[in-house]
Amino acid sequence: MKKKRPFDISNLPSMNMSRRDFLCRSYNGIGALALAGVLAEELSGEKKLDPSKLPLPHLKRKAKHCIFMFMAGGVSHVDSFDYKPSLQDYAGQPLPRMSGLSGEIEGYLSKPHRVIPSAFPFKHYGQSGRAISTLFPSIGKCVDDLAFIYGIEVENNNHGPATMHVTTGSQFQGSASVGSWITYGLGSPNKNLPSYMVIQDPRGAPVNGAATWGSGYLPATYQGTVLRSKGTPILHLELPKGVDRALQRKEFDLLNFLNSQHMHEKPDVSELEARISAYELAYRMQATAPEALDLSKESVETKRLYGLDNPVTEGFGRQCLLARRLVERGVRHTLLVHGVEINKHSWDDHSNVKGRMQNHAAEVDLPVAGLLNDLKQRGLLEETLVVWASEMGRTPFVNDLKSKTPGRDHNQYALVMWLAGGDVKGGATVGATDEFGLKALEEQIPLRDVHATILNLLGLDDTRLTYLHAGRFRRLTDIGGRVLSEIIA
Fold it and tell me: The domain 57-233+302-487: what is its CATH number?
């Protein structure tokens, strides 16, 4: 019997199963996508992308990247982008009887209540003449690049399920996020950075935390990678003390060898494959990520454009500027989160909507406009889909009959979203809410239609973007959605 050769890291490529071999044989080839050509690149010093290794989009679309801005807490649409002058006429009075409502909203209306008009004037902006709250003057100046969707219905009137619905297509945790579906469908055009990045509010996490950007039943390699606002942007990015690149390379080769043995026994465990991919990506990121996330070389004018010279706008301004830099470096999907859990820093304004909306809007208005203008000036807006979203709208009334600083309650029937970039038809509108902004004027727009539209604008057909899980072909839109062609150029 031939004597078994002892393990030697330096001999790894000559073993029966190399890193490339076991990854190519592994479950659905994700590891092969992540590591194909890595060894050859390291020998040659080349870092060129082979476009043939990326999945082909289903449709011909301009947008190659997506920046998804999520305003956590439920933005009051009637104080931002959905002008309702009738609220002034009914100020302090109850609403007339209305049909087509159920759940909490119906319960609110069955009790004594009073209409609360917006405390903020609206102004018509751009050639489209759209009425925007004067809380958002900077976004207002960009209005002709934006397409609005009114009267979107989410399936739950509570933050947790509604947040999951908007960010994953399902009320329940365990489903794949929008960013995961996009990166699953399109792959990553950058081998040195994660394809899906998350930049959350520097003050904390949103409701549901990591489930908001998780991969759910999709392979774990498609989950979002979180950038931290303080310290090392990505955990464990820096080399440990006493370890150089050559030694670390040998350590990774050893880890991959051991993981390959385990993978051979459990080929269907996608988390293991994601871990192998993550080790290799982390190795490359140590050389590329610090430069990508370094804002020191940005000009003073650019920093001012995003509001980095003002403590009020600095937090979200930094998030937006990083998003632009990530787009430049080929990151496929970036999720920006503004708002923390359910507290004063979220958009959940059950009291003092006047004072709190002023604070929230002041933090994001300039940075959002800065991002749109910067992308446009650099020729990147055509290839970048920008999405503004929240988990719900707010009620035009309150049940508190005495408060001098009233707020607004949850409203699952009147979410407003806007999109820009790519093939979005600037100035276009789809849907409408009634004269009070309580629900859709005619038919509600189900959220799955919005998700189908986002996928379509990135070249993905929601009926073809599927994944077999638990005996069923799953998709972001579940039973399918109608593409809102009214806002596509």
Answer: 3.40.720
